[in-house]
Every structure is written in structure tokens, then in C-alpha cells.
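Researcher: Go.
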Amino acid sequence: MFPALKAFFLSQQKPPIVIKKFFEKRIHTCLEYLEKWMTPMEEFSTFTWMDLSEPPEWNDVEACIKFLGEKGVVIDDVKCFDQVTNLKRFTERCNRDEEFSGLQVHQKWTKYFEKAKSIACYSELLKIAQFVFALSSHNANVERVFSLMQSQWTKERNQLSVESLKGILFVQYNLKDMSCKDFHAYLLSNRKLLGKISSTAKYRRADKEDEEEKQD
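Model: Structure:
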């Protein structure tokens, strides 16, 4: 596409100066930048079968098992073979449905897991899916956490311990969709958590940390 556009614009008798400069110099910089940041993603190309646009082939899945093994994720290939066979049947059947074909990848996998009789039918595939879907496609979540952290760790509250800040952020981020009423009901139903809230363990821990700091 780019070579064709470049040839077209530069073949004009008087191409706009901005366009001419872009295709003569800047486009190479842009392409180099994109290639630089896309190269690290090439190692994940073995997972392309997971879009389920086509029934998966065992050879492709086997390559993923090898890749994950090198990362410390152990997949039972015997169990996985049977599970891939079931997934293949499911994909062949569902891809005839336009509604299924139009779903996002994670939604397709959710459908498959929901249809399965038990976790034994997809235990190894679940490990693969958990690895793949843990890879964030953007940094919005990270930026959100940084924003929450800055709102808590202010000049007036700069003595917050890392553990306390972690706890606050955990509640804010993971329970953000829970109303006050629901959160109250959740607390009342969790006796263990209520016990920790009312205990003095947090103060004893703080005193211990203070003593350790003084000794240092």
C-alpha cells in the first residue's frame, strides 16, 4: 500500500511539499518505529489459531504447548489432544452461525467454556487461554491504577505503607462496580474479613515495622 501511494504522489508534477517530504523521509521513520514495536509480538504468532475463525489444528496447538512449556506453564498434551478434538467439533458447528462468527475472541472462548460439561473437558485449554488473555492489548488499566495511586498517595498522606496503599487500590479497582449497599452486605456475609477489620493485628504489625525501622 505505502509503495503504491508513494509512487503515485511522487509521480505528480507538483506534489504538495508536505506530502513529498513525508514520503521521502518521514514514512521510513514511521515504518521503522512500527516494526520496532511489533517485532516483540511475533513470538506470540503461534497463538493465532485461538481466534477460532477456523477449526484448530493439533500442530498449531502443539506449538503453543511447547512455547508455554518454555515459559514454565505445563500443559498435559494427552488431555489437551482430546480437548482440542472437542473444540474442533464445537468450532465447526458454531462457525456456521453468523452471530458466533461476529463475536470477539474472548467471547467465543467464553461460549465454549460455558457449553462444556465440566472443567475436565477444557482444563488444559483453559491454561492456554488464561495465558493469552492475560496479555493486555493496551495500557489503559495501568494508567488507571497510576491515577488511583496518585489520588491516594498525596503530600498529606505520604506516610502510607505500600501494603496499605495496595489494599486501598485493590478495593477501589476491583470493587468499583459494587454499590455501597452491596459492599455492606458483602462485608456482613464475610465473618473472616470482619474479624480482621476489628482485630488489632494491623496495629501490632505497624508497631513491629516501626521497631524494625528504628533498629535500621
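Model: Residues 17-38 form the longest helix (22 residues).
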